[in-house]
User: Fold these one by one.
Assistant:
Number 1:
Amino acid sequence: MGDYRREYERSRKDPEGFWRDAATMIDWVTPPGRILDDGNAPLYRWFPGAELNTCHNALDRHVEAGRGEQPALVHDSPVTGVLTTYTYRGLRDEVALFAGALRRLGVARGDRVVIYMAMIPETVVAMLACARLGAVHSAVFGGFGAKELAARIDDARPVVVLAASCGVEAGRVVPYLPMLDAALETATHRPHHCVIFQRPQHPGALRPGRDISWAAALDGAEPAECVPVAATDPLYILYTSGTTGKPKGVVRDNGGHAVALRWSMANIFDTRPGDVFWAASDVGWVVGHSYIVYGPLLTGATTILYEGKPVGTPDAGAFWRVAAQHRVTTMFTAPTAIRAIKKEDPSGRLAGLYDLGALRLLFLAGERLDPQTYTWAGDLLGVPVIDNWWQTETGWPIVASPRGIEVLPTKSGSPSLPVPGYRVRVVGPDGTDVEAGEDGTILLELPLPPGCLPTLWGDDDRYVRSYLSAYPGNYLTGDGGRFDEDGYLYVMGRTDDVINVAGHRLSTGAMEEVLAGHPAVAECAVIGVSDPLKGQLPRGFVVLKSGVEADPIGLEEELVAMVRAQIGPVASLRRVDVVGALPKTRSGKILRRTMRGIADGADEPVPSTIEDAGVLDRLRPVLRNHR
Ligand code: COA
Ligand code: AMP
C-alpha cells in the first residue's frame, strides 16, 4: 500500500488518532485531551478543552525558534512601485503594537473587527492583531461594494471597522471611504470606531467622531501579548455567496484551523519552514486567508503579498518576475490568471526572461481547471501542476494530489484524490452512491475534518438547513461531479445558483435583488454563462412593469451601474437584456438552468414542467447571442 493510501485509510479508520498526531505541529497553551466532540451532532467540534493562540503560532513561536530574521512577509506591489520585506521579528512587533492599539479602542476576546482594506501589509497586520487578542476578524474583499459591506457589518456587528483609504487597481485608484460611508448609512449596526489607513495614492477625509487614523490609533500604544483562547473559539468569519442575497458567514475556529492548515502545508503543498510560498490571490478570499496569511506563517515559510494582476502590471510576465525575484518555491493561483497570461503571451516567451529555477510546484484552484490551461502551464514551467478542489466553507483542499505524502499521477480535468480527513461521496437523487463514471451530487460525510466550518456565524439553523439536511449525515458541497474507476474525482460545477467569475464566487440571487430594486423592473433572472477567460460571466434578463417604457440601452447602463455600486465591480455584470417574459415552470419557478444550457450552446431539452414553451422559444436567440 502506498503512503497516500496508508495515510488516507488511517484518517478514515482512526480520525482522532490521525488528528491528535497532526496537532503536535502546533504550540498549545493547554494541549488537546479529547480530540472530537460529537455530543452535539451534526454539529461537531475539534479539540474541545484545548487552548492556544493562532498569532503565537504564526509569529512568536518562529521568532523564539530562531527564525526572527527570516523574511515572513514580502509585499510586492507593482501598482504602487513599493517592495517591502518584514522579518518574523518585525512582523511580530508590528502586530503586537497594533493589537495594543485595538485593545485601547476596546477590542477584546470574542469581539468582531471588520477589515475593508487592500492588498497591503497592514491588512495582514490587522488580521494577526485580532488573532493575538482573541478577537474575530472579518475581512471584506475590496472589489465588493456598499451593499455587500453593509450586509457583513450588520451580521458580524463589529466593535471596530478597519479600512484603507483606497485600493489600487491596474491603472486606477478605488477610493474605499465613499463605499464605507454608503455602507454605514444603510447598515443598522454602528461600530464604535473606524480606523482608517491613509494611503498616499488617495488619502480620504476622516469623519470627525467616527474615524481615527491608523497612525493616531498607534500613537502611544503598548504592544499586546497573545491571549490564550479555546481551540473552538472563532478566529474569523469570512462571508461567502450562497444562493440568496444574504451572504453566509463561514466561521473558522482557532484550533482545528491551525492544525489543518499546518498539516496541509506539509502534506498537500509540500512546503517546509524557510520555503517561499506565493498564493496570487486576494486576502479578501479564502485562498488569501488560508494560503497568503495563515498557512505559510504557521509553517515558518515566507509569504508573498502581491498587489498586482497577472497581466497589465506591467505585462504578462509579471507572475514570472515575482516568482523569480523572490525565489518562490511553491505557487498557487486560479486558472483564470493563467488563461489571462496565455491570452497575452501565448508562446510563454516572457517566462523565458526569468530564472524560475527555485519553483517546484504550481497549484491551481478556485474554479474548474480546463485541460488546455493545465497542459499549457505544465509545458511552460516544467513543474507539476496540481489542481485542488475546495471551498470557503472547508478552508483547505478536499481533493488534491498530496505532494508531501506521495507523488501520485495526476489526470488532466481532475483535482485527483480525496485528501486524508475527507470522505467524499457522489450520490444520485435518492442519496445512494452512484457508480464510477456516473454524474451526481458531491457530498462529504460528517464529521468534516478540522479546519472546516463548525457553523455559520450566529446561525446554527441556517448551517444545518443549507448544508446538512438534504442528505442527513453528510455535508452538501453544492458541486456536482463524478469519480472515475481509479477514484479520481471530476468536479463539473455548481448545482445551485452560485457562479464563479474569474475565480470569484458570486451569487446570482444577490444580483437579481439589485436588478429587482429598479423601479422599471417587474421581474428578472441572472444566470452564469461560459466565458473563455473568466470561466463564467453573469448575464441579466429583465421584464418591465406593465405600461413602463424604457430605452433598453439606457436601462442596461443603469442596471449595470447599480450592480457595480452595490455588489461591486468584481460582479462583472455587463449585459442585461429587456425581454417580454421569463420561462417558468407551472409552479412559477424561473427555468434558470435551462436558460444557462441554451446560452452555453447545449442542446437543452425543454422541461416537461414548462408553463409556456413559446416564451422559451422567443428567448432562445437572445440567450444564444453573446454580443
Ligand atoms: N478592489 C477594487 N476593485 C477590484 C478589485 C479590488 N480588490 N478586484 C477586482 N476589482 C475590479 C477590477 O478592477 C475590475 O474593474 P473594471 O470592471 O473597472 O475593469 C472588476 O473588478 C473585475 O475584476 P476582475 O474579475 O479581476 O477582472 P479583470 O478584467 O480586472 O482581470 C483577471 C481579469 C483574469 C486578470 C483577474 O480576474 C485575475 O487576476 N484573476 C485571478 C483570480 C483570483 O485570483 N481569484 C481568487 C481566488 S484564487
Ligand atoms: P470559493 O468558496 O470561493 O472557494 O468557491 C468554491 C467553489 O469554487 C467550489 O464549490 C467549486 O464550484 C469551485 N471550485 C474551486 N476549486 C475548484 C476546482 N479545483 N475544480 C472545480 N471547481 C472548483
Number 2:
Amino acid sequence: MELAVLRQVFFVLFPEASAKLPEEDLNRNNMLRIALQSKGRLNEKSLELLREAGIGIDETGRKLLSKAANFPVEILYLRDDDIPQTVSCGIADAGIVGLNEVMERNFEVDVLQHLEFGKCRLSLAIPKYIEYTGPGFFEGKKIATSYPGILKRWFAEKGVNCEIREIAGSVEISPSIGLADGIFDIVSSGGTLVQNGLAEVETVMESDAVLIGCRGLDEEKMRIVRTLMSRFTSVLRSRGKKYMLVNVPNDRIDEALKIIPSMKSPTLLPLADKGWSAIHAVIDEAEVWDKADQLKAIGAEDILVLSMEKLII
Ligand code: ATP
Ligand code: MG
C-alpha cells in the first residue's frame, strides 16, 4: 500500500496517535511491527516474553512506537480493542492480544501461537438463587455484556433468541440493578461473580494471550515471525522446568530412567567411582520432590536441582 494511504488509514483508526508518529515511522522494510497492549493486564507479560526471547525494548520515555535494539522488530503500543484491526489491515504485521478480543472483533487475522498468559474464560452467569435449565433458559431473556459478537454467534448456534445489551463495564452489577437477567463476561477466579451473587452456568470460550499475524506477509517478514515463534516456544517450554543431576548405581539406571524420562536420549555420564553414573534430566518443577523421593528409594544419591535459564529446541 502507498505510504500516504497507509498513513491516512492509520490516523482515521487512531486519531490520538497522529501527533506522535513521525512520517518515516510508517515506512519500514525488513522490520516486523508488533502491536502490544499499551497498558493493562497483558502489557507487562507481553514485554516480559519478548525480553526472555532476547528482544530488548527500550521502555524509558515510552513512545507510541519503539524499536528493539537487537532484533528486527518494532513495537506499536495500542489499546487491546484496536489490535486485531490494526493487524488485519497490515498497519502492524503481528500483535499480542487476548483470544477473546480476536474472536469478538472477528477481523481476518491468523492466530499463530498461544502464549499461555492472560488466561481467562468467557462465561454466562445468572443470579445464584435461580435454577438453570440449559441454554434454552436464556430464550427471551436480557443479557448484559461487553462481548456481544461472541455471544450472538454462540446463541445462534444453540438456536436461542435473547436480547443482548452491550455495556462497556461493570457488567456484573447488571442483574442486581434490573438491567439484565444474566451476564456474559470474563471470568478468571470467579470471585467477582460470587461477590455479586451470580453463578457461572456456561463457559462459552477459554482465552489466553495469542500471537496474531497479518495474512499475506512477505517472505522476509515471515522469516522474522518464524524466528520469533521458535524463540517463544523455547521460552514457554523452559517455564516451570528444572535441571536435575542425579548419581545412580549402574544396575539401577533402567529404573531411574523410568522415573525421570528424558526429552530425547538420556544424558548418562560415568562417574570416577566405578559402578556409578550421573543422569542429567529436565523435569517439571512441580514434580521435583516426588521424583527425588522415588530416586532415593532406588538407591540414587547426590541429587542436584538447578534453575534452567533456557531450553532452546
Ligand atoms: P485496554 O485499555 O487496552 O482496552 P482493557 O481494559 O480492555 O484494556 P484489560 O483489563 O487490561 O483490558 O484485559 C486485557 C485482557 O486480559 C483481556 O481481554 C483478557 O484477554 C485478559 N484477562 C485475563 N484475565 C482477566 C480478568 N480477570 N479480567 C479481565 N481480563 C482478563
Ligand atoms: Mg480493551
